[in-house]
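Format notes (please read before filing issues)

Several people have asked whether sequences and structure tokens are stored in separate files. They are not. Every record keeps both together, in the order shown below: the sequence lines, then the token lines. Line labels are part of the format and must not be stripped during preprocessing.
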Amino acid sequence: MAADAAEEIRGTAHGTAPVPLSVLDLVTVGAGRTATDALRTSVDIARLAEARGFHRYWVAEHHSMPGVASSSPAVILAHLAAHTGRIRLGSGGVMLPNHAPLVIAEQFGTLEAMAPGRVDLGLGRAPGTDGATAAALRRSDRLNEGADDFPQQLAELTRFLDDDFPDGHPYRRIHAVPGPVQATSPGGVQSPHRPPIWLLGSSGFSARLAGMLGLPFAFAHHFSAQNTVPALDLYRETFRPSEVLDAPYALIGVSALATDDEKEARRQVLAAALNMVRLRTGRPGLVPTPEEAEAYDFSPMEREFVDSWNANVVHGTPDEVRAGLDELQKRTGADELMLTANAHGGDVRLRSYELIADAYGLPTPA
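Then the structure lines:
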């Protein structure tokens, strides 16, 4: 890992934001919209995020969900790299057990060649889908095996990225290209960068592993809020300085939606919550419109779920969202906030990031 790895990991806070702000994109598809529409919105948000001083833009891996068009993070990131010039781009994350480590090393080596010095490799241990889909992805029904082997898979991936398998290892003569081997070939010149590895998690397993390895850690507060503080505490307690970081660095994913008035925010998050109700009850679909959500007859159990879910979505006017994010950062001590805006319309999502940027006085384009 290059000596400036920590500089590529740690961001800079702008305006009045307490920590760097970043974006997590699920490439959500609303009813009446297409995946093409959603991907165009992703480009628009990435450009806005870059212009306004957001630090990084990550894309999450999900499968078999009609309302989430981010099944191929590497492909989407290549598209975003072509439409941006400075913002860091990465996976939030690639689900390592779904893929051969060599394939991931090749994909992210290629992305690094496209956007030198601004690619992150965030890795998750979960499948990013249901069990049947995970079995189809992995060509195996032994799903626990992949999760249990995560530390070994991570070590193998790191070796491919650094091209440093020891002598005698069966993979010693196998190289991830683009990658460091090109620098050792006659006349070879290779970028000094390689994508920093982040570990993602929603419980204590990856928090502990990231701490022990001295890696940056990203916690999924947006769907596992009850575990946020314990996981971050565990990460900090187990952290050991490494060539990558000399001190812990943790970001949290946060569902946040700002609108011009509070009532509209409530309408939008209700629609996103209905989408989660359907997903959790085995009926995944496109993100419904606010009108559909308002007309939906929630059962008592569903209403309880919606209330619990939306209690962890920071939403409202820009001032309300800023206050909520400030409180959350203070309570968790997170080093970075990664915001995900889930709503039916791409225009609503784009406007939310703009309003949050304004609320914090982030830089405006010249």
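For reference, the curators noted about this record: The longest strand covers residues 250-258. The chain has a mean pLDDT of 93.
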